[in-house]
Design a protein that fits this description.
Strand content: 5-15%
Oligomer: single chain
Helix content: 40-55%
Strand order of the largest sheet: 3-2-1-4-5-6
Number of strands: 6
Length: 214
């Protein structure tokens, strides 16, 4: 298949901020007396902020929370998370990822981001990739998070391309499901690769070169 564009999830694919997410949710949950561990945290991958909160609140047994209070809790978590993101720098972008991205771009492929995160632009800026991608579709311009394909369909639309000529790269099973639901081929890394969720299941990010460039 001759792909014209590659659409990347951000967290777990281009970079990893999983630990920052975990610590922020953990601090918020501890403040509410809600049990929260890494097993629950794994359920939040690829899920929107408010949906993540609802998963955490499954362990909450206190007085009913208003929607306003839920927004406050989600905002509290995001503030903690964004504060920790100031630690990110271009040094957190691996040479393998940067070299692969540069090779794909040099070959004429369009590159885009498709992430549920509302912090995508900030993270890209911290990594030194603020203006690198041809399109960025993220949590600020979607109403449905993965496994709904909206974020990827919007990214393809920004590029002016059909899903059939775009390859999605994901590390979460829900993200792979979103890609397939939108009519995209999917290359998986990390957990999604180990689960065999992709059309291509990679052991290294650099394997994208062979898939995309032939």
């Amino acid at each position: 298949m001759n792909y014209q564009a590659i659409i990347f999830d951000l967290d777990g694919v281009i970079c990893s901020t999983d630990e920052y997410h975990y610590q922020a949710w953990k601090k918020m949950a501890d403040g509410m007396g809600i049990p929260f561990d890494r097993t629950i945290n794994n359920r939040l991958r690829g899920v929107s902020r408010m949906e993540s909160l609802e998963i955490i609140l499954e362990q909450y047994h206190g007085p009913a929370l208003s929607e306003e209070r839920k927004v406050e809790l989600a905002t509290q978590k995001n503030d903690l998370y964004r504060e920790s993101l100031h630690q990110l720098s271009p040094a957190d972008l691996s040479a393998e990822v940067k070299d692969t991205l540069d090779a794909l771009r040099a070959a004429g492929l369009k590159l885009a981001i498709g992430s549920s995160s509302k912090n995508t632009q900030f993270i890209l800026g911290q990594l030194g990739l603020g203006s690198y991608f041809d399109a960025v579709s993220d949590g600020n311009n979607i109403t449905h998070s993965k496994p709904d394909p909206e974020v990827f369909l919007k990214a393809a639309g920004m590029l002016g391309l059909e899903p059939a000529v775009c390859l999605v790269v994901e590390d979460a099973v829900s993200g792979a499901q979103a890609g397939h639901a939108g009519g995209f081929a999917v290359a998986c890394v990390g957990d999604a690769s180990q689960a065999g969720a992709g059309d291509y299941n990679l052991s290294a990010f650099s394997e994208l070169r062979a898939i995309a460039l032939g």
